[in-house]
């Protein structure tokens, strides 16, 4: 009885995966060292099938691929949590979901502002419900999950502004939630890690608000100048984030479309003088040699295209690419936690920021998942699948929170 049911599931997935190839969706590669490769292949088949079906729906005019992707990723409603009070509110007109432990506390709790991932295009409060509940329960902290506006409908800086405004509101009203104003942490994964880093940099220069206690950046995307760092080539076809999709998401957030994606991938979108100026921060030279053993593709020189730069020059703004912030700002940042995954195109963004923080005297706790891939935190318990590396990563965040 199990085999026919499995075939009924896999045949449509296989057909749609084939359609994905025919429709020009990215090819993929699962390295042998990745966590739970067999399970990842099945998750990937579902994702490729979803992408293929979305593209078919878009071509037929029924709905856009992004709209369908959001529908599939929206998550499901969970039941009451016996250990948490959960309520949906608005902070400065930004929708948030607040998770508060029911157990009594001797003093003010930690307050965690959480920004979800999804390439600034996908993701919602429901998508990250399990993750936020886990963080709140296990660390006994108040968690505020922020539903920022999504691209391409809302371009940069909409998501950043929503996250900043929600955070400021929370910092000014901690007493309503039993939170110690001296122990507020910003946290996010992937695009949410980008937003957490940007918010942290902005607040570092504010003297009218309490100082953040820490920032937690989970495989963050922190720059869009160079999509040819070692991790981008080593992991270009590793799910759940392909190299092309990383550029696609950055362009959707910036411009509301992904025109000039090829030029951005090739590096012809940034003038030589600007590249040289930021080379002290964005360079393979700053990445430890042990992360290059899987091979580094030599850069092929590309010609700068001025008209492309005109459309993407805001990539040089730290609120969009926090790795480019000046030292004077980085020096003021709070204690930091950075999680990276070996099989992730964004690995080197995290490594470069770790170096920048440490070079500027900021205390950094770094956790590297040797068998991890992008998005694994969300898959620690996903539709009956469990990825041990995802839980290890999530527990490393909890342990850091408990140390504050």
UniProtKB/TrEMBL annotation:
Signal peptide start and end residues: 1-19
Keyword Secreted: no
One Pfam short name: Abhydrolase_3
Gene encoding the protein: Aadacl4_2
Keywords: Hydrolase, Signal
Any one Gene Ontology molecular-function term assigned to this protein's record: carboxylic ester hydrolase activity
Location of the active site: 190, 344, 374
Superkingdom field: Eukaryota
Family as reported in the entry's similarity comment: Belongs to the 'GDXG' lipolytic enzyme family.
Annotated organism of origin: Corythaeola cristata (Great blue turaco)
Upper lineage: Eukaryota, Metazoa, Chordata, Craniata, Vertebrata
Name of protein: ADCL4 protein
GO CC, one annotated term: membrane
Acyltransferase listed as a keyword: no
Domain Alpha/beta hydrolase fold-3: 112-258, 303-377
């Amino acid at each position: 009885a199990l085999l026919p049911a499995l075939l009924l599931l896999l045949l449509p997935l296989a057909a749609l995966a084939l359609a994905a190839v025919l429709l020009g969706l990215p090819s993929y590669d699962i390295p042998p060292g990745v966590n739970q490769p067999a399970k990842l292949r099945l998750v990937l088949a579902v994702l490729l099938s979803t992408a293929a079906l979305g593209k078919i729906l878009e071509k037929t005019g029924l709905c856009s691929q992004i709209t369908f992707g959001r529908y599939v990723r929206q998550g499901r409603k969970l039941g009451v949590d016996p250990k948490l009070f959960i309520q949906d509110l608005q902070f400065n007109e930004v929708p948030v979901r607040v998770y508060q432990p029911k157990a009594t506390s001797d003093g003010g709790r930690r307050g965690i502002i959480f920004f979800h991932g999804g390439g600034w295009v996908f993701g919602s409060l429901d998508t990250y419900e399990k993750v936020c509940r886990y963080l709140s329960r296990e660390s006994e902290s108040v968690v505020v999950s922020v539903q920022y506006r999504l691209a391409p409908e809302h371009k940069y800086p909409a998501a950043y502004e929503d996250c900043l405004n929600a955070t400021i509101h929370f910092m000014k009203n901690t007493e309503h939630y039993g939170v110690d104003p001296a122990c507020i942490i910003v946290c996010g994964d992937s695009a949410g890690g980008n937003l957490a880093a940007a918010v942290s940099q902005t607040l570092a220069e504010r003297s009218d608000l309490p100082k953040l206690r820490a920032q937690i950046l989970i495989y963050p995307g922190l720059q869009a100048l160079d999509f040819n760092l070692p991790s981008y080539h080593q992991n270009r076809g590793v799910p759940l984030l392909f190299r092309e999709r990383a550029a696609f998401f950055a362009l959707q957030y910036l411009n509301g479309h992904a025109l000039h994606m090829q030029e951005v991938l090739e590096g012809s979108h940034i003038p030589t003088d600007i590249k040289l100026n930021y080379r002290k921060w964005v360079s393979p030279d700053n990445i430890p040699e042990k992360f290059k053993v899987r091979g580094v593709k030599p850069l092929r020189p590309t010609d700068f295209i001025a008209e492309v730069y005109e459309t993407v020059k805001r990539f040089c703004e730290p609120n969009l690419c926090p790795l480019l912030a000046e030292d004077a700002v980085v020096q003021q940042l709070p204690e930091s936690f950075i999680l990276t995954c070996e099989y992730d195109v964004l690995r080197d963004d995290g490594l470069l920021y770790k170096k920048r923080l440490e070079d500027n005297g900021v205390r950094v706790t770094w956790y590297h998942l040797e068998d991890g891939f992008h998005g694994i935190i969300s898959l620690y318990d996903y539709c009956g699948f469990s990825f041990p590396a995802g839980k290890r990563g999530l527990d490393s965040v909890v342990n850091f929170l408990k140390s504050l």
